[in-house]
Specification:
491 residues; alpha/beta; 2 domains; five-stranded mixed β-sheet; 5 strands; 63% helix; elongated
Length: 491
């Protein structure tokens, strides 16, 4: 969050060790949509999943030469059948740099094998791919340094003679893109006195992703064996088609060879290989394999959608709802529902978004758990529970005595209170303490007592928001001095 907000101050390199590509797009999305950075970061995952679904549909259409059946079923596998894919459903709606990078990587893979889909002019082809590979590098190193090299190797081996020059140009643009990414990030590390080695390692091995798949129908190790078998079957199925019509099925066999080799990565013992990112990307590639198998079955058996508009509409409707209902009963992902912690996060973000939109920056403070420190950057003052309990009452007493004495407050600015102070207290019966989101029960009781003491002294304290998960109190130290509507009306 600090990095996203730092872009507003034209701060592009921070001593955080994070790649800035995805975060810069989140900042751009926040400005374009007119929402807060907190809400943008929370909702950006939906946008990434939506665009990845579109890219999967387009990619499967090119791989299988099926305009609807194989692409839509492949996308439905990725979107609904969580019980058969290594997807962490706890992070399903969170933004993911890997998914965003794959939105660029999958088209680049297709363009490498079928260059005419992009452009035939070799110089423009090279420059476009250079831009795509560079963008991927600024978003996610796992895709850049693990996935793409393996695919380019497969493309070199299986490419047609007529397209080999384009494949070489794709490889050259990839190498140059890697050089650009290393150079820019190297300069950033130098300016921030960071070790480039540690920067590289921290972005290949990401700590914000973790392997937890309780929804899988069988243990993960067994599921991985099934993936290996499915990948091998798909590769055997495509070989007769490739031998019969090499030009038509080069993309298909290239992807399937790549996916089979990618599956073997799990057996490598390499410290720099992030298996959590491997599983996450595998969920996308397994959907491609399944979609490709469906496409080959459609080709083998001559299955097609009826051309009659009426029959076509009925068939497509039946197909879509049939798959959705099948996902509901066989997968059971709806049974997981929205956890309380997810609901708490969403409601808290709504509060932060309301305050960010409707209140003057730094005219108010928020009292919350320590995670609120990052949310306060460039927005408002922050106070954790400990500081509030230990210092606020004293500061309030001194401020009320000297609030009209400007000279005293100028010399003793630590006693100046924000015009409004918002205190967040979660409900103790929801057990949010384990998630570091909630207010410990004893702390909540002490805060309520302190608020009652302040109210007995004549302070204005209102309930700003109350729901099943938390209560937000507003301590008003200076009336109509924080809310933008009040300030405008008082002009």
């Amino acid at each position: 969050m600090e990095i996203v907000k730092g872009f507003n101050s034209n701060i592009w390199f921070q001593n955080s060790g994070n790649l800035i590509g995805e975060l810069a797009l989140i900042n751009l999305y926040a400005m374009a949509a007119g929402i807060s950075e907190e809400m943008a970061m929370h909702s950006f995952g939906l946008i990434e999943n939506f665009f990845l679904g579109l890219v999967l549909y387009w990619g499967l259409a090119k791989i299988t030469k099926s305009k609807f059946i194989a692409p839509i079923l492949g996308v439905i596998c990725f979107a609904f059948f969580y019980k058969y894919l290594p997807i962490n459903i706890n992070l399903l709606l969170e933004h993911s740099s890997l998914y965003l990078a794959l939105c660029f990587a999958l088209p680049a893979m297709v363009f490498t094998v079928i260059p005419k889909l992009l452009v035939l002019e070799k110089r423009r082809y090279f420059l476009v791919l250079l831009g795509m590979f560079s963008a991927i590098g600024f978003i996610n190193f796992f895709v850049l340094l693990v996935i793409l090299p393996l695919f380019l190797l497969c493309a070199l081996v299986l490419s047609e003679e007529s397209n080999r020059q384009y494949v070489f140009r794709s490889v050259l643009s990839f190498l140059l893109g890697v050089g650009v990414v290393i150079a820019v990030n190297g300069i950033g590390c130098y300016l921030n006195h960071m070790s480039f080695y540690e920067f590289l390692r921290s972005n290949i091995i990401q700590v914000n992703s973790y392997a937890y798949y309780p929804q899988l129908i069988v243990p993960l190790e067994q599921m991985l064996m099934y993936y290996n078998g499915i990948g091998l079957i798909a590769l055997l199925m495509v070989m007769p088609l490739f031998l019969k019509n090499r030009k038509k099925w080069t993309l298909g066999i290239t992807f399937l060879l790549f996916l089979n080799l990618f599956n073997l990565i799990q057996y490598l013992e390499f410290d720099w290989l992030d298996m959590d990112l491997f599983y996450m990307s595998l969920s996308v590639f397994v959907s491609i394999v399944l979609g490709t198998i469906i496409g080959m079955l459609v080709y083998y058996f001559g299955i097609s959608i009826p051309r009659s508009p009426k029959k076509r509409a009925i068939t497509l409707t039946f197909l879509f709802f049939g798959c959705t209902i099948g996902a509901y009963f066989s997968n059971g992902y709806f049974n997981y529902g929205n956890k309380k912690s997810d609901k708490l996060k969403m409601n808290l973000l709504e509060v932060y978004d309301t305050l960010s939109s409707d209140y003057l920056p730094y005219s108010y403070a928020i009292v919350n758990q320590d995670y609120g420190q990052n949310l306060s950057i460039n927005e408002h003052h922050f106070m954790n529970y400990s500081d509030f309990l230990n210092t606020y009452t004293k500061r309030d007493s001194i401020y009320q005595i000297y609030k009209e004495d400007k000279k005293f407050l100028e010399k003793n600015s630590e006693y100046i209170l924000p015009n409004s102070v918002f205190v967040v207290i979660t409900k103790s019966n929801n057990n949010f303490e384990i998630l570091e989101l909630g207010t410990p029960e004893q702390v909540a009781e002490e805060i309520v007592i302190q608020l009652e003491v302040l109210k007995s002294k004549g302070r204005i304290i209102n309930v700003f928001r109350k729901d099943d998960y938390f209560t937000v109190y507003e301590i008003i130290n200076k009336e109509k001095s924080s809310n933008l509507n009040d300030l405008i009306l008082n002009l």
